[in-house]
Amino acid sequence: MKATFYGHASIGLDLEGANVLFDPFITPNEQAKAIDINTLKPDYIILSHGHGDHVADVAAIQKNSDATVIAIVETAAWVKRQGVSEEKIIGMNFGGTLQTSFGTVKMVYALHTNGTPDGQYGGVPAGYIIESGHKKIYYAGDTALTLEMKLLADEELSWAMLPIGDHFTMGIDDAIKAAGFINCKNIIGMHYNTFPVIKINEEEAKRKFAAAGLNLHLLPIGGSLAL
Ligand code: NI
Ligand code: MN
User: Fold this and answer.
1) 106 part of a folded domain
2) What is the CA(117)–ligand 1 centre distance, in A?
């Protein structure tokens, strides 16, 4: 299994039996110009919430790939309003676990806001726990540090994708606390450097995580990591 970084919070996972793409925001991202979205053929697109920097390329990639889109019900309703056919959309909600071709997807809490690009209510934002090939992977979505993360401490997470850019989400210091709350040492950073307000010092971030006994992976755009 592997993870591929497409910039911002857009991450692809090659899992056991299927490929998943989280939060596609690629064509509007100046830093991700090298990524051709027409080459992306996920089986599933999973959305943390409906903010534009997470859903910009959902409709185009879904059309190319015929992927099934998973989101919280109100954000799923926005996906339908983009012309994606109903049988290709799965709306779910907190606590729910979905059986898929690669394993399971459980929707968990995230502390953030959620509106869709057309100005409608997007429900609330979510994170996900993916279980595939005997590994559990947490995709936090956009979130602040929250005590709810402590509920994941006994999940035996192998990997966690955490936002670290600050301003719109937790920053480096809170992400280090989050890694402690969820009891996971292998972290893939996301939601940083895309915009001036979320610019980070990558070396300082890696040093701080290492000092806390954590492995922070910051992938180049288009770069992959074996999970
Ligand atoms: Ni957001
Ligand atoms: Mn965001």
Assistant:
1) yes
2) 11
